[in-house]
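Subgroup meeting minutes
Present: P.N., E.W., G.H.
Scribe: E.W.

1. P.N. recapped why we're keeping a running log of single-chain structure predictions: easier to compare across weeks, and new members can see raw inputs and outputs side by side.
2. G.H. added today's entry (333 aa).
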Amino acid sequence: QGEMMIRAKSIATLAATILVAAALAAPGGEAAEKVTLRIASVSGPQHHHNVALRWYAERVAKRTDGRLDLKVLDGAQLGGERDYIEGMILGSIEMAQVSTGPIAGFIPEFDLFSLPYMFRNTDHFVKVINGPMGAKFFELLEKRGIKGLCWFDNGYRSVFNSKRPIRTPEDMKGLKIRVMESPIMVDTINSMGGSATPMAYGELYMALQQGVLSGAENAPGNVYNDKFYEVTKYYSLTNHFRPPGVVAISLKVWNRLSKADQAVLQEEAKALQTYEIDLTQKVETDSLEKLKAKGMQINDVDFDAFQKAVKPVQDKFATRFGSDLIKQVLETK
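Output recorded in log:
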């Protein structure tokens, strides 16, 4: 029996030695166990955000020989964006792609990105998110238990309607325009001269078809995909909103990962950001061409007039948080 004990002990010692050796051989000096992380997303599988997230998942898998397995759960399988933010704070949802609008419900400063006419063009947008402002807002996220990995571009939102082309704020008079249920968006459309009507997105097509509303505002890709060209005729490039999105991971989950895995996720997220922003530009250009082909009239607007008109919306934000945040974005060169 004594001999059996000794043999059992030596087998146990040998097993422990093998485990330690395996652990040392693994990057970061930790056992190379498979890690599965779910990335939650509200948009449908074909949406370019999910195309980009799956591209990211493939690159991460390739770099870790399949050990880091990112599963994109699109189509709101894990609820809405508010659920994702709460889930990441609690650690019950590992990763998610969320818009800055819903984040403002948890961190009010994020309303900055919902303000009209914050970004002049794509180059300016990229400089802001890659600069001190992007870093500052990721710090605010981290204080709430969420680590930002990269920014996403949602492209510009513009006004489309069934009545007439919009060139100046005067053209917006008397038009009932659907907006998201956001005070900033309501204020913006009203200050642009229209009559803002908050409504659930799912009800919009019918409201336009029945003439209850004159129009709405959205990015070209959504106007095309959801067939709004069937119920409206004019798409005016007001380019008033460009609220970004964020790809993030729960800090609780992040802190459990090895340094090596953290590095892979972060480095590949940098590549993901560039890939997604390029993809958004492509989708925007393609969608405008497709809308033209469907008979929609597309026109440019008097930007100066609209920027002047929405100044009170920016001032309202400045009253809450000081004018410094707006200034830093607008003065980014």
